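Side project, low priority. Logging it here so it doesn't get lost.
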Amino acid sequence: MMHSLKISLLHLVLLVGRQGAVSAFMPSTSSASAIHKSIPLSMSTSSDSEGDNRRGFLTKVLGGAALTGLVANGIAVQGPSPYEPAVGSLKGKLVVITGGNTGLGLESAKRLAAGGATVVLTSRNVAKGARAVDSVKSYVMEKNGQGNDNIYTLPLDLCNLESVKAFPDILRNSEAFKSTQHIDVVLNNAGVMAVPDLQLTKDGYEKTFQSNHLGHFALTAGLIPLLNANGSRIVNVSSMAYLIASKGLDMTNLNGELEYKPWDAYGRSKLENILFTKELQNRADAAGKKITVVALHPGTVRTDLPRYMMGGEDKFVSMQDATPSNVDMLKAAPAFYFTKSVERGANSQVFLSALQGGNDVKGKFFINMKENDLLPAALDMDKAKELWKVSEEMSGIKFEL
Protein backbone atom coordinates (compact mmCIF):
# COMPACT_ATOMS: atom_id res chain seq x y z
CA MET A 1 0.00 0.00 0.00
CA MET A 2 2.85 2.37 0.87
CA HIS A 3 4.47 1.68 -2.48
CA SER A 4 1.20 2.52 -4.24
CA LEU A 5 0.99 5.78 -2.30
CA LYS A 6 4.50 6.75 -3.41
CA ILE A 7 3.64 6.06 -7.04
CA SER A 8 0.42 8.08 -6.71
CA LEU A 9 2.33 11.06 -5.33
CA LEU A 10 4.76 10.85 -8.19
CA HIS A 11 1.91 10.80 -10.68
CA LEU A 12 0.34 13.78 -8.91
CA VAL A 13 3.48 15.86 -9.30
CA LEU A 14 3.66 14.97 -12.98
CA LEU A 15 -0.01 15.87 -13.49
CA VAL A 16 0.19 19.15 -11.62
CA GLY A 17 3.34 20.15 -13.42
CA ARG A 18 6.62 21.44 -12.16
CA GLN A 19 5.61 25.12 -12.16
CA GLY A 20 2.56 24.62 -9.98
CA ALA A 21 4.39 22.30 -7.61
CA VAL A 22 7.34 24.62 -7.19
CA SER A 23 5.23 27.74 -6.67
CA ALA A 24 3.23 25.97 -3.98
CA PHE A 25 6.48 24.91 -2.37
CA MET A 26 7.74 28.49 -2.00
CA PRO A 27 8.50 29.72 1.56
CA SER A 28 5.43 29.84 3.78
CA THR A 29 4.81 29.73 7.51
CA SER A 30 1.39 28.13 7.23
CA SER A 31 0.86 25.00 9.24
CA ALA A 32 -0.68 21.87 7.76
CA SER A 33 -3.92 22.54 9.62
CA ALA A 34 -4.08 26.11 8.34
CA ILE A 35 -3.61 24.92 4.78
CA HIS A 36 -6.31 22.31 5.29
CA LYS A 37 -8.76 24.97 6.54
CA SER A 38 -8.01 27.20 3.57
CA ILE A 39 -8.95 24.57 0.99
CA PRO A 40 -12.61 24.98 -0.04
CA LEU A 41 -14.84 21.96 0.43
CA SER A 42 -16.99 23.05 -2.50
CA MET A 43 -16.44 25.35 -5.42
CA SER A 44 -19.88 25.03 -7.01
CA THR A 45 -21.20 28.40 -5.72
CA SER A 46 -18.15 30.38 -6.77
CA SER A 47 -17.90 32.55 -9.84
CA ASP A 48 -15.95 31.15 -12.74
CA SER A 49 -12.95 33.38 -12.05
CA GLU A 50 -13.06 32.69 -8.32
CA GLY A 51 -13.44 28.99 -8.99
CA ASP A 52 -10.48 29.07 -11.35
CA ASN A 53 -8.40 30.84 -8.71
CA ARG A 54 -9.37 28.33 -6.07
CA ARG A 55 -8.73 25.42 -8.39
CA GLY A 56 -5.36 26.94 -9.20
CA PHE A 57 -4.62 27.33 -5.51
CA LEU A 58 -5.74 23.78 -4.80
CA THR A 59 -3.55 22.53 -7.63
CA LYS A 60 -0.55 24.32 -6.15
CA VAL A 61 -1.25 23.05 -2.63
CA LEU A 62 -1.64 19.47 -3.81
CA GLY A 63 1.44 19.77 -5.97
CA GLY A 64 3.42 21.20 -3.09
CA ALA A 65 2.17 18.49 -0.75
CA ALA A 66 3.12 15.84 -3.28
CA LEU A 67 6.56 17.35 -3.78
CA THR A 68 7.03 17.62 -0.02
CA GLY A 69 6.03 13.97 0.33
CA LEU A 70 8.45 12.94 -2.39
CA VAL A 71 11.31 14.88 -0.84
CA ALA A 72 10.52 13.52 2.64
CA ASN A 73 10.25 10.00 1.26
CA GLY A 74 13.53 10.41 -0.56
CA ILE A 75 15.25 11.40 2.67
CA ALA A 76 13.66 8.50 4.57
CA VAL A 77 14.53 5.96 1.90
CA GLN A 78 18.10 7.15 1.50
CA GLY A 79 18.90 7.31 5.19
CA PRO A 80 21.94 9.08 6.67
CA SER A 81 25.17 9.81 4.85
CA PRO A 82 27.64 6.90 4.58
CA TYR A 83 29.19 5.99 7.92
CA GLU A 84 32.96 5.63 7.81
CA PRO A 85 35.02 4.15 10.65
CA ALA A 86 37.94 6.34 11.68
CA VAL A 87 41.21 5.49 9.97
CA GLY A 88 43.14 3.05 12.15
CA SER A 89 40.22 2.40 14.50
CA LEU A 90 39.91 -1.22 13.36
CA LYS A 91 43.59 -2.09 13.09
CA GLY A 92 44.23 -5.62 14.35
CA LYS A 93 40.56 -6.62 13.94
CA LEU A 94 39.65 -9.50 11.62
CA VAL A 95 36.31 -9.24 9.82
CA VAL A 96 34.87 -12.14 7.81
CA ILE A 97 32.23 -11.12 5.24
CA THR A 98 30.08 -13.62 3.36
CA GLY A 99 29.21 -12.60 -0.18
CA GLY A 100 31.93 -9.99 -0.12
CA ASN A 101 32.63 -9.81 -3.83
CA THR A 102 29.75 -7.50 -4.73
CA GLY A 103 27.00 -5.21 -3.43
CA LEU A 104 26.69 -4.53 0.28
CA GLY A 105 29.41 -7.04 1.15
CA LEU A 106 31.96 -5.37 -1.09
CA GLU A 107 31.00 -1.89 0.09
CA SER A 108 31.29 -3.01 3.71
CA ALA A 109 34.70 -4.51 3.01
CA LYS A 110 35.93 -1.23 1.52
CA ARG A 111 34.95 0.95 4.45
CA LEU A 112 36.00 -1.52 7.14
CA ALA A 113 39.35 -1.99 5.40
CA ALA A 114 39.73 1.80 5.19
CA GLY A 115 39.25 1.77 8.97
CA GLY A 116 42.24 -0.56 9.22
CA ALA A 117 40.55 -3.96 9.56
CA THR A 118 41.94 -7.19 8.19
CA VAL A 119 39.15 -8.36 5.90
CA VAL A 120 38.31 -11.78 4.49
CA LEU A 121 35.81 -11.74 1.63
CA THR A 122 34.12 -15.03 0.86
CA SER A 123 33.00 -15.79 -2.67
CA ARG A 124 31.84 -18.83 -4.61
CA ASN A 125 33.85 -17.61 -7.59
CA VAL A 126 37.62 -17.34 -7.07
CA ALA A 127 38.14 -14.86 -9.92
CA LYS A 128 35.40 -12.54 -8.66
CA GLY A 129 36.82 -12.75 -5.17
CA ALA A 130 40.25 -11.74 -6.44
CA ARG A 131 38.82 -8.77 -8.33
CA ALA A 132 36.97 -7.72 -5.18
CA VAL A 133 40.23 -7.76 -3.22
CA ASP A 134 41.84 -5.50 -5.82
CA SER A 135 38.82 -3.19 -5.68
CA VAL A 136 39.02 -2.91 -1.89
CA LYS A 137 42.75 -2.23 -1.95
CA SER A 138 42.31 0.49 -4.59
CA TYR A 139 39.53 2.08 -2.54
CA VAL A 140 41.65 2.19 0.62
CA MET A 141 44.62 3.67 -1.22
CA GLU A 142 42.48 6.35 -2.80
CA LYS A 143 40.62 7.07 0.44
CA ASN A 144 43.51 7.09 2.88
CA GLY A 145 46.52 7.80 0.71
CA GLN A 146 48.06 4.60 2.06
CA GLY A 147 47.36 0.95 1.44
CA ASN A 148 45.98 -1.95 3.46
CA ASP A 149 47.42 -5.24 2.25
CA ASN A 150 45.45 -7.28 4.79
CA ILE A 151 42.59 -8.00 2.39
CA TYR A 152 41.93 -11.61 1.40
CA THR A 153 39.40 -13.81 -0.36
CA LEU A 154 38.52 -17.39 0.50
CA PRO A 155 36.08 -19.79 -1.24
CA LEU A 156 32.69 -20.47 0.33
CA ASP A 157 29.43 -21.80 -1.06
CA LEU A 158 26.61 -21.49 1.45
CA CYS A 159 24.48 -23.82 -0.68
CA ASN A 160 26.97 -26.63 -0.16
CA LEU A 161 27.29 -27.73 3.46
CA GLU A 162 30.50 -29.55 2.60
CA SER A 163 32.00 -26.18 1.65
CA VAL A 164 30.56 -24.53 4.76
CA LYS A 165 32.00 -27.18 7.08
CA ALA A 166 35.43 -26.94 5.43
CA PHE A 167 35.62 -23.16 5.70
CA PRO A 168 36.74 -22.80 9.37
CA ASP A 169 39.88 -24.88 8.72
CA ILE A 170 40.57 -22.99 5.49
CA LEU A 171 40.34 -19.74 7.40
CA ARG A 172 42.42 -21.02 10.31
CA ASN A 173 45.26 -21.88 7.92
CA SER A 174 45.04 -18.61 5.98
CA GLU A 175 47.44 -15.67 6.13
CA ALA A 176 44.57 -13.52 7.37
CA PHE A 177 44.04 -15.61 10.49
CA LYS A 178 47.74 -16.04 11.19
CA SER A 179 48.08 -12.28 11.56
CA THR A 180 45.31 -11.99 14.20
CA GLN A 181 44.74 -15.49 15.65
CA HIS A 182 41.05 -14.76 16.13
CA ILE A 183 37.93 -13.40 14.41
CA ASP A 184 36.47 -10.17 15.75
CA VAL A 185 33.46 -9.84 13.45
CA VAL A 186 31.44 -12.26 11.32
CA LEU A 187 29.25 -10.33 8.88
CA ASN A 188 26.63 -12.75 7.52
CA ASN A 189 25.79 -10.71 4.46
CA ALA A 190 25.26 -13.09 1.52
CA GLY A 191 21.78 -13.98 0.33
CA VAL A 192 19.31 -14.51 -2.49
CA MET A 193 15.89 -13.01 -3.10
CA ALA A 194 12.75 -14.09 -4.95
CA VAL A 195 14.08 -17.24 -6.61
CA PRO A 196 11.22 -17.72 -9.11
CA ASP A 197 10.72 -21.45 -8.70
CA LEU A 198 11.54 -24.14 -6.19
CA GLN A 199 15.26 -24.87 -6.51
CA LEU A 200 17.09 -27.36 -4.34
CA THR A 201 20.70 -27.10 -3.25
CA LYS A 202 23.27 -29.88 -3.44
CA ASP A 203 22.13 -30.80 0.08
CA GLY A 204 18.48 -31.07 -0.98
CA TYR A 205 17.23 -27.92 0.71
CA GLU A 206 15.29 -24.99 -0.75
CA LYS A 207 17.79 -22.46 -2.08
CA THR A 208 16.51 -19.34 -0.28
CA PHE A 209 16.34 -21.17 3.04
CA GLN A 210 19.88 -22.52 2.80
CA SER A 211 21.47 -19.40 1.29
CA ASN A 212 19.93 -16.96 3.73
CA HIS A 213 19.61 -18.99 6.92
CA LEU A 214 20.85 -22.57 7.12
CA GLY A 215 24.23 -21.94 5.48
CA HIS A 216 24.93 -19.03 7.80
CA PHE A 217 23.72 -21.00 10.82
CA ALA A 218 26.18 -23.80 10.03
CA LEU A 219 28.98 -21.38 9.18
CA THR A 220 28.58 -19.41 12.39
CA ALA A 221 28.59 -22.64 14.40
CA GLY A 222 31.89 -23.61 12.82
CA LEU A 223 33.47 -20.21 13.44
CA ILE A 224 32.53 -19.95 17.12
CA PRO A 225 35.82 -21.56 18.30
CA LEU A 226 37.78 -18.99 16.28
CA LEU A 227 36.10 -15.91 17.77
CA ASN A 228 37.97 -13.46 19.96
CA ALA A 229 37.37 -14.65 23.52
CA ASN A 230 37.74 -11.06 24.76
CA GLY A 231 34.76 -9.91 22.71
CA SER A 232 33.41 -10.54 19.23
CA ARG A 233 30.39 -9.68 17.15
CA ILE A 234 28.11 -11.51 14.73
CA VAL A 235 26.16 -9.24 12.38
CA ASN A 236 23.22 -10.80 10.50
CA VAL A 237 21.82 -8.96 7.48
CA SER A 238 18.06 -9.46 7.69
CA SER A 239 15.30 -7.30 6.22
CA MET A 240 11.95 -5.71 6.97
CA ALA A 241 10.72 -8.32 4.50
CA TYR A 242 10.32 -10.48 7.61
CA LEU A 243 6.90 -8.80 7.75
CA ILE A 244 5.86 -11.04 4.87
CA ALA A 245 5.89 -13.78 7.49
CA SER A 246 4.25 -11.62 10.15
CA LYS A 247 1.87 -14.43 11.13
CA GLY A 248 4.86 -16.37 12.36
CA LEU A 249 7.35 -18.90 11.04
CA ASP A 250 5.70 -21.96 9.49
CA MET A 251 8.00 -24.79 10.54
CA THR A 252 6.20 -27.24 8.26
CA ASN A 253 7.11 -25.29 5.11
CA LEU A 254 10.75 -24.27 5.63
CA ASN A 255 11.73 -25.90 2.35
CA GLY A 256 8.57 -25.18 0.45
CA GLU A 257 7.34 -28.68 1.24
CA LEU A 258 3.70 -27.59 1.24
CA GLU A 259 3.87 -24.63 -1.10
CA TYR A 260 6.60 -22.54 -2.68
CA LYS A 261 6.19 -18.83 -3.37
CA PRO A 262 9.29 -16.71 -4.08
CA TRP A 263 8.47 -13.81 -1.78
CA ASP A 264 7.09 -15.99 0.99
CA ALA A 265 10.36 -17.93 0.98
CA TYR A 266 12.35 -14.71 1.16
CA GLY A 267 10.21 -13.29 3.98
CA ARG A 268 10.56 -16.51 5.98
CA SER A 269 14.33 -16.47 5.59
CA LYS A 270 14.55 -12.89 6.86
CA LEU A 271 12.41 -13.81 9.88
CA GLU A 272 14.72 -16.76 10.45
CA ASN A 273 17.70 -14.38 10.48
CA ILE A 274 16.13 -12.43 13.33
CA LEU A 275 15.06 -15.48 15.33
CA PHE A 276 18.57 -16.91 14.92
CA THR A 277 20.01 -13.62 16.18
CA LYS A 278 17.80 -13.63 19.26
CA GLU A 279 18.41 -17.26 20.16
CA LEU A 280 22.17 -17.10 19.58
CA GLN A 281 22.42 -14.03 21.81
CA ASN A 282 20.45 -15.76 24.56
CA ARG A 283 22.64 -18.86 24.37
CA ALA A 284 25.87 -16.86 24.27
CA ASP A 285 24.82 -14.91 27.35
CA ALA A 286 23.82 -18.09 29.18
CA ALA A 287 27.21 -19.64 28.35
CA GLY A 288 29.04 -16.54 29.58
CA LYS A 289 30.53 -15.84 26.15
CA LYS A 290 31.50 -12.30 25.19
CA ILE A 291 29.61 -12.46 21.93
CA THR A 292 27.32 -9.73 20.64
CA VAL A 293 24.76 -10.74 18.01
CA VAL A 294 22.75 -8.17 16.09
CA ALA A 295 20.47 -8.06 13.03
CA LEU A 296 19.66 -5.27 10.60
CA HIS A 297 17.59 -4.08 7.66
CA PRO A 298 19.76 -2.37 5.03
CA GLY A 299 16.84 -0.93 3.08
CA THR A 300 15.88 -1.44 -0.53
CA VAL A 301 19.31 -1.18 -2.07
CA ARG A 302 20.55 -1.18 -5.65
CA THR A 303 22.59 -4.41 -5.52
CA ASP A 304 22.81 -7.77 -7.29
CA LEU A 305 20.19 -9.24 -4.95
CA PRO A 306 17.33 -9.12 -7.51
CA ARG A 307 19.31 -11.30 -9.95
CA TYR A 308 16.52 -13.90 -10.07
CA MET A 309 13.99 -11.28 -11.15
CA MET A 310 16.28 -10.42 -14.07
CA GLY A 311 16.71 -13.79 -15.73
CA GLY A 312 18.51 -15.74 -13.03
CA GLU A 313 22.18 -16.57 -12.55
CA ASP A 314 22.85 -17.41 -16.22
CA LYS A 315 21.50 -14.19 -17.76
CA PHE A 316 22.25 -11.80 -14.91
CA VAL A 317 25.28 -9.51 -15.21
CA SER A 318 26.77 -8.56 -11.85
CA MET A 319 27.14 -4.89 -10.96
CA GLN A 320 30.82 -5.67 -10.52
CA ASP A 321 31.05 -6.65 -14.21
CA ALA A 322 28.52 -4.32 -15.80
CA THR A 323 29.11 -1.01 -17.56
CA PRO A 324 25.62 0.51 -17.89
CA SER A 325 24.85 2.65 -20.93
CA ASN A 326 23.06 5.99 -20.81
CA VAL A 327 19.90 4.21 -21.96
CA ASP A 328 20.25 1.67 -19.15
CA MET A 329 20.62 4.50 -16.63
CA LEU A 330 17.55 6.26 -18.02
CA LYS A 331 15.46 3.10 -17.76
CA ALA A 332 16.60 2.59 -14.17
CA ALA A 333 16.02 6.22 -13.13
CA PRO A 334 12.53 5.74 -11.59
CA ALA A 335 13.84 2.97 -9.36
CA PHE A 336 16.64 5.17 -8.05
CA TYR A 337 14.18 7.34 -6.14
CA PHE A 338 12.69 4.43 -4.22
CA THR A 339 15.98 2.66 -3.49
CA LYS A 340 19.17 3.33 -1.59
CA SER A 341 22.64 3.60 -3.01
CA VAL A 342 24.94 0.79 -1.93
CA GLU A 343 26.99 3.34 0.03
CA ARG A 344 24.01 4.29 2.20
CA GLY A 345 22.53 0.80 2.25
CA ALA A 346 25.69 -0.57 3.86
CA ASN A 347 25.54 1.94 6.72
CA SER A 348 24.06 -0.25 9.42
CA GLN A 349 26.28 -3.24 8.76
CA VAL A 350 29.42 -1.11 8.55
CA PHE A 351 28.43 0.72 11.75
CA LEU A 352 27.75 -2.52 13.61
CA SER A 353 30.77 -4.35 12.17
CA ALA A 354 32.92 -1.44 13.31
CA LEU A 355 31.89 -2.52 16.83
CA GLN A 356 29.80 0.58 17.47
CA GLY A 357 27.12 0.58 20.15
CA GLY A 358 28.94 -1.73 22.56
CA ASN A 359 26.84 -4.19 24.53
CA ASP A 360 23.75 -2.04 24.07
CA VAL A 361 23.13 -3.55 20.62
CA LYS A 362 22.90 -7.15 21.84
CA GLY A 363 20.11 -9.10 20.16
CA LYS A 364 18.62 -5.98 18.62
CA PHE A 365 17.41 -5.01 15.15
CA PHE A 366 18.76 -1.92 13.39
CA ILE A 367 17.63 0.32 10.55
CA ASN A 368 19.73 3.32 9.48
CA MET A 369 22.09 2.69 12.41
CA LYS A 370 19.27 2.97 14.95
CA GLU A 371 17.48 0.31 16.97
CA ASN A 372 13.98 -0.54 15.76
CA ASP A 373 11.14 -2.45 17.39
CA LEU A 374 10.05 -5.82 16.05
CA LEU A 375 6.63 -7.38 15.65
CA PRO A 376 5.65 -10.42 17.78
CA ALA A 377 6.59 -12.96 15.07
CA ALA A 378 10.23 -11.90 15.40
CA LEU A 379 10.08 -12.13 19.21
CA ASP A 380 8.71 -15.67 19.40
CA MET A 381 11.45 -17.40 21.36
CA ASP A 382 9.68 -20.75 21.37
CA LYS A 383 9.80 -20.67 17.59
CA ALA A 384 13.42 -19.51 17.73
CA LYS A 385 14.36 -22.54 19.83
CA GLU A 386 12.48 -24.84 17.48
CA LEU A 387 14.24 -23.33 14.45
CA TRP A 388 17.61 -23.81 16.17
CA LYS A 389 16.91 -27.49 16.80
CA VAL A 390 15.71 -28.11 13.25
CA SER A 391 18.69 -26.22 11.83
CA GLU A 392 21.09 -28.43 13.77
CA GLU A 393 19.35 -31.52 12.42
CA MET A 394 19.31 -30.28 8.83
CA SER A 395 22.92 -29.07 8.82
CA GLY A 396 24.25 -32.06 10.73
CA ILE A 397 26.11 -29.65 13.04
CA LYS A 398 25.80 -29.43 16.78
CA PHE A 399 25.95 -25.68 17.49
CA GLU A 400 27.81 -25.48 20.80
CA LEU A 401 28.90 -22.41 22.73
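Brief comment: The radius of gyration is 24 Å.
Revisit when time allows.
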